[in-house]
């Protein structure tokens, strides 16, 4: 304990010195001129929440490699039972911040579900999800899949292969059931996107249908990530969309087969963010900067030298106080490859991106995409002008706070200058989606108009169907 207190004290002094230097940084500020707040951290003891998924890695690495201590922070990491418990913990102040779904701060801010003023000053990672089906479903669709010269299925696999299964279940008077982790999760929107691209309607949300099953060809329900494999094995669901290691856990247990990874649905999609209340960031600005700085360092460590540190990260995440899955299960997706089935291991160098491709920068266009999907499936019931999407996204995804921390790290030589984007927060038009539809974050209503399935500007949904607003 004496050594620990010494390290903490030293870390606090270093953080104070670094923050003070940051205030005297570049004489000519870049872009919006964001600078780190000077002074020592106001709240050195923090409690952060997380869900047992491999993409919580930046938090675990920041703690285990001493990056939190370097910034003067003594951080307790506490696993949460599910995303609702985690969200309530941040809103209620039991947690200072958390590993949060990319859509959660946005949804809370606009009052979708729980109403709260949340922000996301850091994106934790890109990609990292997959969609898995049970062996029962796999046995029905595998014979129909196109095969390569090696006899293995060609990827990516379209959701259209499930249409005969949907019809078979319907003829038997029961719905085909899939699980996802939370109504405003990227997992939900990716699963819905993939299904709709294959001609399968995933259903609309209504005030009296919070499960989003109105007009659905397939029934989606919420299951906490660590419970996905057991729920699949029990036959309660026949497939799911989840982050790792819970797709690989199904492969290891030989109870399911991943059909598609999310980088084949939307390449380099945002997955998790650092979420906190706006009040926390305003009350503890230096603490917020220190927290972001530590996590950026951890992200850089995770992607350094083309993933050279990933094996060590796997061993850390395998500990029971973090993800608590077998190391080989975590490694099956986190070390540059992805296992679809025993003997079917494919290169997946971008399955988890933590630092490369500006993974940490909270792009407003990523937040706009989440909002378009909320509107597409009826969670946002009324039309909104393009300006509302853009303003909401920029108010929640706080690039200014990220830049304050990142530019200070650049000035100190900790991260390279080219790792921080020069941008207005909107990516150029994005392509590579499973359905071939291009996405321009500056034109959300025009984007929604491109889809055959889903709400568009001028439409609303009721139990009787879709009608003009």
Largest sheet: 5 strands, mixed
Number of domains: 2
**Strands in their spatial order, largest beta sheet:** 2-1-3-12-4
| Mean model confidence by pLDDT | 92
Spans of at least 5 consecutive residues with low confidence:
1-36
Number of strands: 16
The CATH class of the largest domain, by name, is: Alpha Beta
**Percent in strands:** 15-25%
What multimeric state do the chains show?
single chain
Q: Separation of termini?
A: 64 Å
CATH topology of the largest domain: D-Maltodextrin-Binding Protein, domain 2
Label the overall shape: globular
Q: Structural class, please?
A: alpha/beta
Radius of gyration: 22 Å
Q: Write the CATH architecture name of the largest domain.
A: 3-Layer(aba) Sandwich
By CATH, the superfamily of the largest domain comes out as Periplasmic binding protein-like II
- Helical residue percent? 25-40%
What is the count of DSSP helices, taking H or I runs of 4+ residues? 18
Keywords: ATP-binding, Cell inner membrane, Cell membrane, Membrane, Nucleotide-binding, Signal, Transport
GO cellular component, one term: endomembrane system
Family: Belongs to the CmpA/NrtA family.
Protein name: Bicarbonate transport ATP-binding protein CmpC
């Amino acid at each position: 304990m004496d050594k620990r207190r010494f390290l903490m004290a030293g870390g606090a002094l270093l953080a104070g010195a670094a923050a003070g230097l940051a205030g005297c940084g570049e004489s000519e500020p870049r872009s919006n001129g964001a600078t780190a707040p000077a002074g020592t951290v106001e709240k050195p003891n923090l409690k952060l929440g997380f869900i047992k998924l491999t993409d919580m890695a930046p938090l675990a690495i920041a703690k285990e490699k001493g990056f939190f201590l370097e910034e003067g922070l003594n951080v307790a990491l506490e696993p949460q039972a599910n995303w609702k418990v985690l969200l309530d913990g941040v809103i209620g102040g039991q947690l200072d911040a958390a590993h949060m779904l990319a859509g959660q701060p946005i949804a809370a801010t606009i009052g979708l579900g729980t109403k709260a003023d949340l922000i996301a000053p850091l994106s934790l990672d890109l990609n990292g999800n997959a969609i898995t089906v049970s062996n029962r479903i796999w046995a029905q669709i595998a014979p129909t899949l196109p095969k390569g010269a090696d006899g293995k299925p060609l990827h990516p696999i379209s959701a259209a292969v499930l249409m005969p299964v949907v019809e078979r279940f319907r003829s038997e008077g029961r719905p085909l059931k899939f699980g996802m982790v939370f109504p405003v999760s990227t997992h939900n929107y990716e699963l819905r996107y993939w299904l709709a691209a294959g001609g399968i309607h995933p259903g609309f949300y209504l005030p009296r249908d919070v499960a989003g099953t109105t007009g659905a060809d397939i029934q989606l329900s919420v299951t906490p990530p660590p419970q996905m494999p057991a729920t699949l094995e029990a036959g309660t669901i026949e497939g799911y969309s989840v982050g790792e290691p819970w797709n690989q856990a199904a492969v290891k247990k030989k109870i399911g087969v991943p059909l598609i990874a999310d980088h084949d649905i939307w390449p380099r999609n945002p997955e998790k963010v650092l979420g906190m209340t706006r009040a926390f960031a305003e009350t503890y600005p230096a603490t917020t900067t220190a927290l972001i700085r530590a996590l950026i360092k951890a992200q850089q460590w995770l992607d350094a030298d083309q993933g050279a540190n990933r094996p060590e990260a796997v061993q850390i995440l395998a500990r029971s106080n973090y993800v608590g899955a077998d190391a080989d299960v975590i490694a099956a997706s986190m070390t540059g490859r992805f296992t679809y089935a025993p003997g079917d291991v494919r290169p997946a160098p971008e399955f988890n991106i933590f630092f490369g491709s500006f993974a940490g920068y909270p792009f407003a266009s990523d937040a706009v995409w989440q909002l378009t999907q909320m509107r597409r499936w009826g969670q946002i019931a009324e039309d909104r002008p393009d300006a509302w999407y853009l303003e909401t996204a920029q108010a929640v995804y706080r690039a200014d706070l990220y830049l304050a921390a990142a530019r200070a790290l650049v000035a100190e030589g900790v991260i390279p200058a080219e790792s921080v984007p020069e941008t207005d927060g909107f990516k150029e038009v994005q392509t590579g989606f499973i359905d071939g539809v291009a996405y321009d974050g500056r034109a959300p209503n025009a984007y929604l108009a491109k889809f055959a399935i889903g709400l568009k500007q001028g439409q609303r949904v009721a139990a009787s169907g879709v009608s003009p607003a």
